[in-house]
Automatic annotation (TrEMBL):
Organism field: Clostridium cellulovorans (strain ATCC 35296 / DSM 3052 / OCM 3 / 743B)
A Pfam family annotated for this UniProt entry: UPF0020
Name listed for the protein in its UniProt record: Ribosomal RNA large subunit methyltransferase K/L-like methyltransferase domain-containing protein
GO MF term set: methyltransferase activity; nucleic acid binding
PROSITE patterns attached to this UniProt entry: N6_MTASE
InterPro entries: DNA_methylase_N6_adenine_CS, RlmKL-like_Mtase, SAM-dependent_MTases_sf
Domain named Ribosomal RNA large subunit methyltransferase K/L-like methyltransferase: residues: 636-688
GO BP: any one term: methylation
Length: 757
C-alpha cells in the first residue's frame, strides 16, 4: 500500500467512525434516524486528507473578480506546469463539489443498513467488527482512491482563494514561491490557518486554530524560550492603513480590509480578542500583534507573517444570449481568512504597469495581464527543456510582452510594430531596465533637474514630493554633445510631436507649441553641456507624449498649460523610478540557493520574503518597424511556439473598415501558418467600450474564433484546435476562454487562448 492509499483509508475510516457515533447518539436519544448522516460532520474526510496529510494555501490576488477572471486560470496553469512530470494529470474541483462527491460515495458504500449491521456486530465481537470495517474500507479505497489522488480542491472567493493539495501532489513551499514570482495576478501566498464563514467564527475557534498552527512551528508552546523570535500578527484593518503611503501601497487589496471596531468573533469585538492574545502566556511568547511595518523588527521571524483579512463569495450570473458568465458580484457571505504569508510578488514591472519610462499611447496592456496571458500557455514547463522557445508579438507596442517573456530563459523573441515610436519606446525601456543603480541615480537626477525647471527654477525638498531622501548631486552624466550641425533640441522635439498622429493638431497646437518652446529652450540651456543629449531628448519626447495625450483637453480649454502637464507626468515618473530603484537594490539580499534552483531571487521584505525574477536580457530579440504581415513574410523560415498579441482596436487609426478587416483576417492566417506543432495563440480583444467609442464587430471575441476555425480548415495543410479538459469547476464556462478584463472607466477586454495540433 502506498502512502496516498493509506492516508485515503485513514480519512475514510475517520469519517465512517463519526457516522457510527452519530448513529449511536441518534438511537440513544431516540431520534428519527432516517437519513441521519445528513447531520454528521461531512467535512471530516476533507479536513483529514488536506489539512492533516496534505497542504492548504491561501492565495491573495492583486485584482478580484470585479476586474478579471484570468487570475484563476493563470493560477491553475502555473500550478499544473510547475509540478513534477508525474503530476501533470492534476485536476481542479470546487470545495463544495469535492465534499459532495466524496461524501456521496462514502454514504453509498457505508449506508444506513451497513452502519446498523456493524454496530450490532461490534456489540458482541469487536475483532470481527474491525475486520469487516477494514475489508470494506480497503475495497472502497481500491475503487476510488485513484479518482482523488491528483484532485486539487479550491475555495473560490472574490479576491482570493484557498488551494487544498493532497499529499500525492508533490509540491513544497519553494515551488509555491516560484508560482507567486512568475504570476501576474498573485500578490502573495501563505499557509492557511483557517477560512470560515464569519457567522461561524467565535473567539474559541480562533484561539484553537491559532494554537494548533503555532504548535506546528514552535512545538510545545509551554517550553518556549523568552529570546525566541516571534511571528507578526497583522489585522488588515482600515484603521491601521490610513496613512497615504500605506493606503496607496495596499489600494489594490482594499477589498480584503475590515473595520476593527465593527468586527466581532462571536460575542467579542476583534480588538478585545487581540488584547487577550497579548495577555495569554503562550501567545505572548510566539505572536507579536502588530500594525503596519514602520522599520526593522529584530525579534520577529522574517519568513512568517500572519495576516487576518476578510473576503466574500462570488455570485455568478450567466448571460442568456451568449451563455457566458457575466462579471460576478459580491455576495453577502463574508469569510474570515487567517494565513501565514511566506512570499509576496514584488515584480518590479508592476511598479510602472502602464506608465513605463518609454511610452507612446494610453491603450497599453498592463504588465499584470500580459504576465497572466503568457502563464496560461505553460511556458514555464517548456522553459525547462533544452531547446529555444520562439515567441512572436506582431503588434508589440512598447514591449510589455517582451519584458514579461524575458523572465524566462531559452527565449527567442520577435516583435513587430507599424509605429516607429512604439519600437523607440520598447528599446528605451529595454535600456532602462538594463541600468544598474548608479545609472538609475543619474536618470533620477536628470528628471529632478527637469522638475526644477518646470517649477520655475525654484529649488524644493524632494522628500516632500515623494517621500524619498534628498538626492546627492555627486555625479552627473559626463557625455558632452558638441556637434554644431545637429538641429536644436527644441526643433527635434517639436518636429517629433507634430508627426505623432493627429491628436497634436486637435488639442490646441499653438498653445502647446508656445509652452513647449519655452520649456525645451530652458532645458537646452541647463542640459547642453552636462547631460547626454540623446537620452534627454528621448525621455522628454516620451514625457511630452504623456503630457499631450493625457492632458491635451484641459490644455486646449486653458485649464492649465503644457508646462504643468509635463510637471505632473515628470513627478509621477520620478516616484515610480525611485520605488524601482529601492526594489532592485533589495536584490542584493537574495537567497543564492533559491536563485540557482529556480531562477528567482528571494528577498527580505516588510512582512515576509519577496520574490523577483531574473530578467533574461542577454539574448538578442528582434524588434522591427513595419506592417506585421510583411515583417512575418520576411522571416519565411521562422516558426513560433507562442504568438501573443494585443492587436489594434481601431481607436487610434485612420484606416477604413475594409483595411482593418483584412488586417485581422490576414494576420490570423499568418499566425496559424507560422505556429510549430502544439503552438499557441493568445489574443486580447476589445469587448465593450465605456467611453462611447465604437468597437467594430470584426475585432471582437464573438467573431474571431469563427475565423480561426474557418482558416484552420482551409489551409493547404489543415490544422485542428485542442481543448484543455483539466478544469472541473462550476460554473462551467467561467474558467475557460474568453476570459474578461475590465477597466471600469474605459474598456472591457476578452482574452482568447488557442492551442493547435
Amino acid at each position: 500500500m502506498d502512502m496516498w492509499q493509506e492516508e485515503f483509508e485513514n480519512s475514510v475510516r475517520h469519517q465512517v467512525m463519526i457516522m457510527i457515533d452519530e448513529k449511536l447518539k441518534s438511537k440513544k436519544n431516540q431520534v428519527n434516524n432516517e437519513r441521519y448522516y445528513k447531520s454528521h460532520n461531512r467535512n471530516s474526510f476533507f479536513n483529514d486528507i488536506f489539512r492533516k496529510y496534505g497542504a492548504v494555501y491561501s492565495i491573495i490576488f492583486r485584482q478580484g473578480l470585479a476586474k478579471t477572471n484570468i487570475q484563476y486560470a493563470e493560477l491553475f496553469s502555473l500550478l499544473k506546469n510547475c509540478l513534477p512530470e508525474s503530476c501533470t494529470s492534476v485536476e481542479f474541483m470546487g470545495d463544495k463539489g469535492y465534499i459532495d462527491k466524496i461524501n456521496s460515495l462514502i454514504e453509498c458504500f457505508f449506508n444506513d443498513n451497513y452502519i446498523s449491521n456493524i454496530i450490532e456486530i461490534r456489540s458482541y465481537d469487536h475483532k470481527k467488527f474491525k475486520e469487516m470495517l477494514d475489508e470494506r474500507i480497503t475495497a472502497f479505497s481500491e475503487l476510488y482512491s485513484s479518482l482523488f489522488k491528483n484532485l486539487v480542491s479550491v475555495t473560490f472567493l472574490y479576491n482570493s482563494c484557498i488551494l487544498f493539495l493532497p499529499s500525492a501532489i508533490e509540491i513544497d513551499d519553494l515551488t509555491m514561491k516560484k508560482i507567486c514570482a512568475l504570476s501576474g495576478y498573485i500578490h502573495s501566498i501563505g499557509r492557511s490557518i483557517f477560512v470560515r464563514n464569519l457567522n461561524n467564527v467565535n473567539e474559541d475557534f480562533f484561539y484553537s486554530k491559532l494554537r494548533t498552527y503555532l504548535k506546528n512551528i514552535y512545538g510545545n508552546l509551554n517550553n518556549i524560550q523568552e529570546k525566541e523570535e516571534k511571528i507578526r500578527f497583522i489585522p488588515f484593518a482600515y484603521e491601521d492603513f490610513l496613512d497615504d503611503e500605506l493606503s496607496k501601497s495596499h489600494s489594490e487589496l482594499d477589498a480584503l480590509k475590515f473595520h476593527m471596531e465593527k468586527l466581532y468573533l462571536g460575542k467579542k469585538r476583534i480588538t478585545e480578542v487581540l488584547e487577550d492574545i497579548e495577555k495569554d502566556e503562550q501567545f505572548k511568547k510566539t505572536i507579536k500583534v502588530g500594525t503596519p511595518y514602520n522599520g526593522v523588527d529584530g525579534d520577529v521571524k522574517q519568513e512568517h507573517c500572519i495576516w487576518m483579512c476578510m473576503d466574500c463569495t462570488p455570485e455568478y450570473n450567466i448571460n442568456q444570449s451568449t451563455n457566458i458568465v457575466d462579471t460576478p458580484v459580491k455576495s453577502k457571505n463574508k469569510y474570515l481568512i487567517c494565513y501565514d504569508q511566506f512570499i509576496c510578488n514584488k515584480n518590479e514591472y508592476y511598479i510602472f504597469n502602464e506608465n513605463m519610462p518609454g511610452w507612446y499611447d494610453n491603450v497599453t496592456i498592463p504588465h499584470t495581464l500580459m504576465a497572466a496571458m503568457i502563464n496560461l500557455t505553460g511556458i514555464n514547463r517548456l522553459n525547462n527543456s533544452n531547446r529555444k522557445i520562439n515567441i512572436l508579438d506582431p503588434f508589440v507596442g512598447a514591449g510589455t510582452s517582451y519584458f514579461q517573456a524575458a523572465k524566462f530563459q531559452n527565449i527567442n523573441f520577435t516583435g513587430f510594430d507599424k509605429n516607429s515610436t512604439a519600437i523607440d519606446a520598447l528599446r528605451f525601456n529595454k535600456n532602462f531596465f538594463e541600468m544598474d543603480t548608479q545609472k538609475i541615480d543619474r536618470f533620477i537626477r536628470l528628471l529632478y533637474k527637469l522638475l526644477i525647471i518646470l517649477n520655475n527654477n525654484q529649488e524644493f525638498n524632494v522628500s516632500s514630493l515623494f517621500n524619498m531622501k534628498s538626492i546627492e548631486e555627486n555625479e552627473l552624466w559626463s557625455d558632452i554633445m558638441d556637434d554644431k550641425n545637429q538641429r536644436s533640441f527644441s526643433e527635434e522635439l517639436l518636429s517629433y510631436c507634430e508627426k505623432y498622429y493627429s491628436f497634436f493638431n486637435k488639442y490646441g497646437k499653438n498653445l502647446i507649441i508656445d509652452n513647449l518652446e519655452l520649456i525645451v529652450k530652458n532645458v537646452e540651456e541647463h542640459f547642453s553641456y552636462i547631460f547626454n543629449r540623446s537620452n534627454t531628448l528621448k525621455i522628454l519626447k516620451f514625457l511630452t507624449l504623456k503630457a499631450v495625450r493625457r492632458h491635451g483637453i484641459p490644455i486646449s480649454r486653458n485649464r492649465y498649460d503644457s508646462k504643468k502637464a509635463l510637471y505632473i507626468e515628470t513627478k509621477l515618473l520620478i516616484k515610480s523610478i525611485y520605488r524601482y530603484r529601492i526594489a532592485i537594490e533589495n536584490r542584493n539580499n537574495c537567497d543564492g540557493e533559491a536563485f540557482e534552483k529556480l531562477g528567482l531571487g528571494l528577498m527580505t521584505n516588510k512582512y515576509s520574503l519577496s520574490t523577483h525574477i531574473s530578467e533574461n536580457y542577454n539574448y538578442n530579440p528582434i524588434f522591427q518597424v513595419g506592417d506585421c504581415r510583411k515583417c512575418i513574410d520576411s522571416y519565411s523560415n521562422m516558426k513560433y511556439d507562442l504568438i501573443i498579441t494585443d492587436p489594434p482596436y481601431g481607436f487610434n487609426t485612420d484606416e477604413d473598415i475594409i483595411y482593418m478587416s483584412n488586417l485581422y483576417k490576414d494576420i490570423i492566417k499568418r499566425m496559424i501558418e507560422k505556429l510549430n506543432r502544439n503552438g499557441q495563440i493568445i489574443m486580447c480583444l476589445p469587448a465593450t467600450s465605456y467611453t462611447g467609442r465604437n468597437i467594430e464587430y470584426f475585432t471582437q471575441a464573438n467573431i474571431v474564433p469563427m475565423q480561426v476555425i474557418d482558416i484552420c480548415k482551409n489551409l493547404n495543410n489543415p490544422r485542428s484546435l485542442k481543448n484543455d479538459a483539466h478544469l472541473n469547476l462550476p460554473p462551467k464556462n467561467f474558467f475557460k476562454p474568453p476570459y474578461y478584463w475590465e477597466s471600469g472607466k474605459s474598456l472591457r477586454r476578452h482574452i482568447l487562448h488557442f492551442t493547435f495540433d
